[in-house]
């Protein structure tokens, strides 16, 4: 098993509510995120999305596939989405959104370990390539989301969201 901790930041020129809605609509991520082959709903979760479980299938730029489930464990609209991964990788991920003067800053934390033996071997031998692959896929995700959000109409009378808890960055 190999452990990875990724910390990715996206600055998007879109309102926080639109970004949050796009991130919670993960069944449609394959429409705009290159490399994401499929997302399937396994459990619906509650009215906030907590408990929702989905199966993700990613094709890496290196040619291998990752299959894992994400179970949403915490949601604070429109600032936070956290989930637990199980499958080819296991760990936690969180989307943290922060409203800025000109859009939204998104921070994605992904702390996982590989589960399948071949993945652990690959990570030991080619860790820089695995990190490069993750970075490329996240850059493509950011570009895809930015393009997707350009097509989403801005809400009328948009008022800034007020966060009920202290920012962590």
TrEMBL record:
Pfam families membership: Polyketide_cyc2 (PF10604)
InterPro entries: Polyketide_cyclase/dehydratase, START-like_dom_sf
Source species, domain of life: Bacteria
Name this protein carries in UniProt: Polyketide cyclase
Organism annotation: Billgrantia bachuensis
